[in-house]
Each structure stands twice: as structure tokens, then as C-alpha cells.
Sequence to fold (293 residues):
Amino acid sequence: MNINQEQLTIFKTVMETGSFSAAARKLNKVPSAVSMSIANLEIDLNLNLFERLGREPVATSEAHVLYEKTNQLLIEMNQWKQQAYALSTGLESVLNIVIASELLDTNWTDYVSLVSKQFPDLQINITSAPQEDALAMLLDQRAQLAWMFEREHLDYREQFVEIKKESLIPVVSKTHPLANMQHIQFEDLLNQRQIVVASRDNTIKPELLFSKNYWRTDNHHSAYMLIVRNLGWGVLPSEMFQENPRLKQQLKVLDLLDFTPKFEYYIDLVWSRESKLGSAARYLIEHIRRDRK
Fold:
């Protein structure tokens, strides 16, 4: 059996127009070519698709059953061809993006939607991980792109483009002892347990660590749950408060005397110089670069 896309298109058109001649006109073919194609299709399938007793062919019950599948099959064949063409021109077979768990509340989904619209058949995998782990996934090429905070020290393999600023805010439960203090000195923080978002690798020292006593977690959502239960103070992204207004009722922003109560960072889209990026990754990078101009 050797059925091609042209045969299926002709069959579909005959079913929809009701005659070989009308199908020929619609497809810009001679009627004999349409009739021959249908005859060859019947031979390949070993089925009688049309009764030719009167002036116009009449579709058999078998033809009606196959017609229901033809539209979807033609769509899939076109998608297959488009995907093959895209791959031949440099589209990656899959785009793996890792989002630093500290940034899950930011608008990264807007950028993923943008890529999806431009490359609708591309498979995109999204993973979240603490900042240090996200960078490790990027550099060992488990991910092509990473959505991360700016880093104090850059790895020589990193390349990035800045997206926007984000603030991290020191907070505590409204029932915590620190919440009753009007002004808080650095020494006050040292003596209170801190809930810190850090790598899953316990050998890596957390960033933004101030207290002598601290608990680790790998994302800000679990950090928030611990903080609101009065188990320590911590630093949360400002966008968490925009996404969940209830946080303002449960948490108090600490008024720190010795340093600013907001930690401002740029959010970067990061990739590895050692990775060969595909069309979708390059498209997103160039889009962000144009937005910055």
C-alpha cells in the first residue's frame, strides 16, 4: 500500500464536492487525473470507494468512514512536513527551560507563550530549581535557557541578557518577636532563625544568608509557608505580594536600620556559550534584546 498526500487530498475534495469534475476544477486538474487517482487509491486499499452507476459517483459507506479520518491525517501530514522543515533550518527538537524557583512568580510565562506562538509544534519543557542548581543544569546542558537572578560572580561559560529588575523583601510573620520591633539592627537578625532559599546541594552556601541559625528550602513558596507559621524570618520576591495580596495581611516587612530593606536584582535570561542554540532559543534571546532598546 503506497498512499500519498495528493491522493488523500483528491479523495477529500471529491467527497466534499460530490463529483470528479467539480473536484478537478477546485484542484485545477483535468477530470481524468482525478478519476485515475481515485481508481489507483481503490486498488491500493482494495476497496470500492465510489459507485459509478449514474452521472455522478456515489460514495460508499467505506468512503464515508475513511473520510472522517482524512482531514486529521492531512493536518498531521502537513504538521510533520512543517516540523521537518523547521528542524532542517535549525529548530531544536525540544526546548528545555529552567526557572530559578525564586522567580516562579514573575511573568516568565509571557515569554514562553511568545515562543509557543512562533513555533507552535515545538515541545517545551519547564523545570524549576534553586538559583545555583538552575545554573548547574544550564552549564551541563540539561537546559538550553535559564531564567535567573543576576549572579555576583559569572562563570566564563555564561552569556545572558537582562530582562528587568526584581526586589527581594525581608519579612516575618506578624506574630514573630521581630515584628514588634520598630527598628531592627543587623545583630537582631543574627540571633533569629532565618528561612533561606538555597541549593539542594547542602555543600553550597546560600546567598543572602545573615543569621547564625537557619533552615534551608529550595523554593520561596515553602519558605513563605515556614515564615507565616512563625518558624523564622526570610526574604521573599516582591512579585509574590502582587500575585497573592493575602501575604500583606500575614507578613510584616522588616524595617532594617543597618541596610536597605529591599534587595534589588536584575532578572537575566542565561545560556551557555558552549551550547549550540536552536531557532526558538535564539528567537527569544533576540526578542528580549529588541525590547531593551
